[in-house]
Amino acid sequence: MAYAEKTSVSTEKSRAEIERTLLRYGADQFMYGWDQEKAIVGFRMSGRQIKFLLPMPDKDKFKRTEKNRQLRTLEQQHKAWEQACRQKWRALSLVIKAKLEAVEAGIAIFEDEFMANIVLPNGSTVSDFMLPQIAAAYDSGTMPKLLPDMTSN
């Protein structure tokens, strides 16, 4: 069973809770937005811009019941999709709160907890930048060079 799978807390309340949590821990900027495929939550704290992309469930996956036995009505499909959205927002709220509490308690430092989500000057995140390098290092079995090769000029 997924965390908050049966939550009745609306996505709006979860988003507001995230905003209140960020304020309580010292964020000085907050934004959010959404489209059909994802939601975005961004904030600034400790001099860093942070971005979370929250993938939204595909509405088409709710045309049938969980075990793919029966077709749902449009109303049932929408209710099931809304439930999945509520679950995702609850999980994001939990993750952000847990990371901030770990920092507050001295268990971790801010940059370590939010490293993957730190926005770099070009708008990408540390995760966007590092994941291809990590994959290449594992594929080749070698570490990337610390500095570019300057002898090939």
Q: What is the strand and helix layout of this fold?
A:
Blueprint: H1 11-24, E1 29-34, E2 38-45, E3 48-55, H2 74-104, H3 110-114, H4 126-140
Helix pairs in contact: 1-2
Overview of the molecule:
- The relative contact order is 0.14.
- The chain has helices at residues 11-24, 74-104, 110-114, 126-140; strands at 29-34, 38-45, 48-55.
- The chain is 42% helix and 14% strand.
- The chain has one domain (11-140).
- Helix 1 (11-24) runs parallel beside helix 2 (74-104).
- It has four helices and three strands, in the order H-E-E-E-H-H-H.
- It has 153 residues and is α+β, with helices and mostly antiparallel strands.
- It has a three-stranded antiparallel beta sheet with strand order 1-2-3, covered by helices on one side.
Tags for this entry?
153 residues; alpha+beta; three-stranded antiparallel β-sheet; 4 helices; globular
Percent helix: 40-55%
Instruction: Report the end-to-end length measured between terminal Cα atoms.
Output: 57 Å
Coarse shape: globular
Biggest sheet overview: 3 strands, antiparallel
Order of helices and strands: HEEEHHH
Radius of gyration based on Cα positions: 20 Å
Tally of extended strands?
3
Low-confidence stretches: none
- Count of runs of 4 or more consecutive helical residues: 4
Tally of domains = 1
The order of strands across the largest sheet is 1-2-3
Mean pLDDT over the residues: 92
Based on secondary structure, the structural category is alpha+beta
Strand content: 5-15%
